Amino acid sequence: MVDDLYKEILNLRSSGQRAALATVVSTRGSSPGKTAMKLLIREDGTAVGTVGGGCVEADVYDAAIEVMRDEEARFLEFSLTEKGLPGGGLVCGGTVRVFVEPIVNKTLLLFGAGHVSRALSRVAAVAGFSVIVLDDRESFASEERFPDATRVQVVPDFGDVLDHVQLTQDTFGVIVTRGHDHDELVLRQVLGKPLGYLGMIGSRAKIKKLFGQMEKEGIEKANLEFVHAPIGLDIGAQTPEEIAVAVVAEMIMVRRMGEAKGSGRIAGSLCPMREQEEQVSESAPARSGASDV
Question: Which of 3.30.70.120, 3.40.1500.10, 3.40.50.1100, 3.40.50.720 is the CATH number of 107-283?
């Protein structure tokens, strides 16, 4: 039974589904629940295992829903008497303590496999995110370049990225491809989709121009305001590694503090690498290929 439960946890994490795991950590006196008994409650209300049944388990169910929502573990203690649980019909006389912890898999989708993405993968993995990298270049999208990523995939092009990933409220997306055209292509596909966070690299000028055009096309302003662009907290980041720290810090803020707005509420780094490229391109003839970000 325990092996099946742990296998189910792995399945839930790989599919991006939330759950909560309840474990009996101690008992005193007579109790139907025994130490180390476990109950896994899925987001849809179904469950595997038990912590002893009865009204104790019903209360654990209710707590599990809150734990999944808040992502905060908690201890529950039950006195198995009519006084401790009125109406429960419990006369065991003992007590049971249950620890309920969230099973939440935060996934970072990196659209693009350039220098910034490489740094982002390392920092995000350390921060507890499962990282998936998508790019249309085999020479960039490789496990050798992204050893910390859970999955690295070469896609035919950026025009069908949603065919290769599943988006949920626990998915964080960062658009950091090798050029503005690809950034826009990905952005148009993921706007309005269920995401916990969405950020896109680029200068303020380019972001303003692009978002203005998309608004004219009828794209809802609320969807555009959800995008963190320019991306990352404003810490004066310059190098790919510094930009990665700024972006992951912003992601952590969203995860822990519930900040769900982007433009106009967070200063955002300007991403000097992309802005410098724009300044050069505006004052010089266009080059044959865009530099990789």
Answer: 3.40.50.720
pTM of the model: 0.78
Cβ contact 155:134 at 8 Å? yes
Phi, psi for 156 (deg, rounded to 5): -55, -45
Kindly list the domain boundaries of the chain, sorted by start residue.
2-103, 107-283
pLDDT, one tens digit per residue, over 254-273 is: 998 875 444 334 334 444 44
Alpha helices by DSSP H, listed for the chain, are 2-15, 54-70, 115-126, 180-190, 204-216, 221-225, 240-257, 272-283
Please, are residues 235 and 242 in contact by the beta-carbon 8 Å criterion? yes
Report the alpha-carbon distance of residue 166 to residue 168 in Å, rounded.
Answer: 7
Q: Using one digit for the tens of pLDDT, what is the confidence trace for 117-175?
A: 999 999 999 999 999 999 999 999 999 999 999 999 999 999 999 999 989 999 999 99
